[in-house]
Amino acid sequence: MAAKDRGGSTLETGAQVLAGQLGKTIQRLRKAYNLSLAELAEQSGVAKSIISQIERNETNPTLATIWRLSQALDMSVERVLASGDDTPFIEKITRPETPMLVSEDGRMRLSIIGWIKTVEWLQYYDLHADPGGELDSEGHQRGSVECLTVLSGALDVEIGDQTETVKAGETLRYRCDQRHILRNNGTEPAHAFMVCLLKAAVLD
User: Fold this and answer.
1) Helical spans, DSSP H, in 57-184
2) Is 181 in the same domain as 123?
């Protein structure tokens, strides 16, 4: 009987630890996605009060509830259950798996190295431009900002009637909600990182 009691105590303690990790994980993921309790409740179909209790480790959710929350947070049930504060998120994309955009002239190549989950508001590119290369882009949504950091070579950025040259080690930030053109007018290849904030605050 004593052994059985010890076993039961161990299982209970294990369940409490799991529930505690689950609550922290749900809260961490919710905040990472910038979701309020009400928004996560709406997306998952789990009551706001239940989510709050889970995050505070005041209830043991059913598997169905965990599944709904994991779907809303775009994570597998296994990863949600396994994730704790000490478990980092790691995702590796190999070079062949990295999608790439090519300019019409074929002289500019943008590897899409940003996270697909943030593509609607944050885009991150590794840009390589051969001499004479040109990338002509239409404007993004109002208030969008692009940040271009040149690592080697130089690039010209044309917006309206203004053109700026960005050299190695320099960063140019500019509104990209109107037509903008990147050119490599030099004789050497250029390499740059480009970050596009599609939902930046509207600039007056």
Assistant:
1) 63-72, 77-82
2) yes
Domain co-membership, 6 together with 76: yes
Would you state the structure tokens that stand for residue 138, as one six-digit string?
């239409």
Range of the domain at 143: 100-197
Name the token pair of 204: 């007056």
Per-residue pLDDT of the chain (204 residues; tens, 9 = 90+): 333 333 444 333 333 434 457 788 888 888 877 888 999 999 999 999 999 998 888 887 877 888 888 888 877 665 666 655 455 567 788 888 888 888 889 999 999 888 776 777 788 999 999 999 999 998 888 888 999 999 999 999 999 899 999 999 999 999 988 899 999 999 999 999 999 988 655 444
> Do 120 and 175 fall into the same domain?
yes
* Sign of the torsion angle spanned by Cα atoms 99, 102, 107, 108: negative
Q: Kindly state whether residues 104 and 190 are assigned to the same domain.
A: yes
Bridge-based pairing of strands 154-159 and 162-167 is antiparallel
* pTM given for the model: 0.57
Half-sphere exposure of 184 (CA within 13 A, CB side): 24
45: left (phi over 0), alpha (psi -120 to 50) or beta: left
Instruction: Indicate whether 118 belongs to any domain.
Output: yes
E strands along the chain, which residues?
100-102, 108-112, 122-129, 134-137, 145-152, 154-159, 162-167, 171-175, 180-183, 190-197
Nearest to 122 by CA among 97, 91, 144: 144
